[in-house]
Amino acid sequence: VTDAGGVVASFTTTVCSGCTSTDDLVWFVEDDAVMDDVVACAVQQAHIDVKHIHVLGWSAGALHSTHVALARSNYLASFISYSGGAYPLPTQPQNPNNHVSGILSYGASGVDWVVLDFHAQSLSWYQTYNPMGWYCMMCDHEGGHMIPPDLAPHAYQFFMDHPFEDNPEPYAGGVPAGFPSYCKNMP
């Protein structure tokens, strides 16, 4: 990413100690403004490609990624959720016309679990947003709470294939060759 002129930025802690509007019990809605600042700085100082602003996370970070896919749909192109999915925080899409494409990677029900069943949370995201036109590649690796090592190398390809406001969906006809066989366009 950096070799191509991009920027990689990551939260290490929340900036919002004492906040109560959590999107996943770890991150807070107020943290979204930090992301806005990082993006604005990257646009201004690094001259990043604004058609390729993506987000990914694992576990609580994955729940935050699906939250910001909605809350920051004015500039996000796509997301990847490793053991995340929907969280019951009502979030309206910032830009209802930008259906941010995503990969939802999750394990077996009752096995991919830490406070929440991430299998169920991922299915909940799909069942809510796919009927509204949001593309979701569903990757049920049937394992535990993890980032599958055979899927992670495809993140960059997914991001490059999904620029901002991409239409029509490039994977509508099927998941490209090379992705793990457990990745499909439906659960």
Q: Would you kindly provide a written description of the structure presented here, covering whatever features stand out?
A:
It is a single chain. The chain is globular and about 40 Å long. It has four helices and seven strands; from the N terminus they run H-E-H-E-E-E-E-H-E-H-E. The chain is of the alpha/beta class and 187 residues long. The model has no long low-confidence stretch (mean pLDDT 90). It has a five-stranded mixed beta sheet, with helices on both faces.
Structure at a glance:
The protein is of the alpha/beta class.
Task: Offer a few descriptive terms.
alpha/beta; five-stranded mixed β-sheet; two-stranded antiparallel sheet; 7 strands; 25% helix; 14% strand; globular
